[in-house]
Specification:
It is a single chain. By secondary structure, the chain is an alpha/beta fold. It folds into four domains: about 80 residues, Arc Repressor Mutant, subunit A (Orthogonal Bundle); about 100 residues, D-Maltodextrin-Binding Protein, domain 2, CATH 3.40.190.10; about 100 residues, D-Maltodextrin-Binding Protein, domain 2 (3-Layer(aba) Sandwich); about 40 residues, no CATH class. The chain is built from eleven helices and 18 strands. The relative contact order is 0.12.
Length: about 350
């Protein structure tokens, strides 16, 4: 026979009160039921734990020896249950997230700040890595989830779409194309081009779209990080194209950004989690919070309302001019004005997408 939790509690309560009557009241059971539990425990350990007197009981030497350990076990169990309840109620916990340096600085840093204001005891751990490393970190279990782009979702991974992002062409301020409102991909042919490394999901997305369009770039450098791209363009080594969420960094590098069209390539930013694995309460809360945060803090991006992926599981290409209608999806608007960072300003036509203030 194994020792049960009720037997252990009965022993400790009697040892504390030195009375069966008081111990039974604290356990909300009858005195006879309590006596049975203590006798079962003594039978299991094969030793007498109490010397029983008329009005009081005393611990035997074996009972005194056992009491210290039994009380410690019950206290540890209470602490474990209390900790678990705190964890479930978000009074404690940890969230580990992997994302690119751009997503980390532009999206997660302000999101972390707001989340910590509400849940100060949740520890947020950020791994800023090259985009191609995110999926592997999630699959290995090194993080709770990752945020980025994945053109071909590997086995064992699930994706919840977060928002869609477009691309901007990058030039130093003296470049002849810096004054254009829009740049076609065809305009970039022949120019020295700074590209992300071939293993980058962004690079693979661009290569696939341009191959379909019959456009070939003159790549002179391949680098791993967006900040390196910005530095090389600033040094006038070449031009480049990066996702629109890089535009807050352009002033620091004295660069100009212009929306790229013909075709407009859309990349989908998603939250990656391991398949059939539950997130902790803290990670689940932060993922849900992040979806809300994107909705009100990134008005320049199209938030994904339908959690499903495209039927073929691939990132889709949108070849329509930039514009959106919340009910009808993308629609061709009049082309609005653009500032030096590639941010779209309000258009005179209704329905155009204003990346500074939201929908017009």
């Amino acid at each position: 026979m194994e020792i049960t939790l009720r037997q252990l509690k009965a022993f400790v309560f009697v040892a504390r009160t030195r009375q069966f009557t008081a111990a039974a009241q604290q356990m909300f059971i009858t005195q006879s039921a309590l006596s049975t539990l203590v006798k079962e425990l003594e039978s299991t350990v094969g030793l007498k734990l109490f010397d029983r007197h008329t009005r009081r009981v005393e611990l035997t030497e074996a009972g005194a020896r056992f009491y210290t350990q039994a009380e410690r076990i019950l206290q540890s169990l209470d602490d474990a249950v209390s900790d678990l309840r705190d964890w479930g109620a978000l009074r404690s916990g940890r969230v580990r997230v992997a994302a690119s340096t751009v997503i980390s600085s532009g999206l997660l840093s302000p999101a972390f700040k707001e989340f910590k204001n509400r849940w100060p005891n949740i520890r947020l751990v950020l791994h800023d890595v090259a985009e191609e490393e995110i999926v592997d970190m999630v699959l290995r279990g090194g993080v709770d989830f990752g945020i980025g782009t994945c053109n071909e979702l590997p086995a064992g991974l699930e994706q919840t779409p977060l928002f869609d992002d477009h691309f901007i062409a990058l030039f130093h301020r003296g470049h002849p194309m810096a004054d254009k409102e829009y740049v076609a991909w065809k305009d970039l042919e022949g120019l020295p081009f700074i590209a992300l490394a071939q293993r980058s999901p962004i690079r693979r997305l661009i290569d696939g779209a341009l191959h379909n369009a019959g456009i070939e770039l003159n790549i002179v450098n391949e680098v791993s990080f967006a900040t390196t791209v910005l530095s090389l363009v600033n040094a006038e080594i070449g031009v480049s194209v990066l996702p629109m969420n890089n535009h807050p960094s352009l002033p620091a590098f004295d660069l100009v950004g212009r929306p790229v069209i013909d075709p407009i390539i859309t990349r989908r930013i998603g939250i990656f989690t391991r398949e059939r694995r539950s997130l902790s309460p803290a990670a689940e809360e932060f993922a849900a919070y992040l979806r809300r945060f994107v909705g009100h803090s990134l008005p320049g991006h199209r938030q994904i309302r339908d959690p499903g992926r495209p039927a073929d599981g691939q990132t889709t290409f949108n070849t329509e001019p930039i514009g959106t209608n919340p009910d009808r999806g993308l629609e061709p608007p009049a082309r609005p004005k653009v500032d030096d960072t590639g941010t779209l300003r309000p258009s005179a036509r209704a329905g155009c997408f204003d990346r500074t203030r939201g929908r017009q």
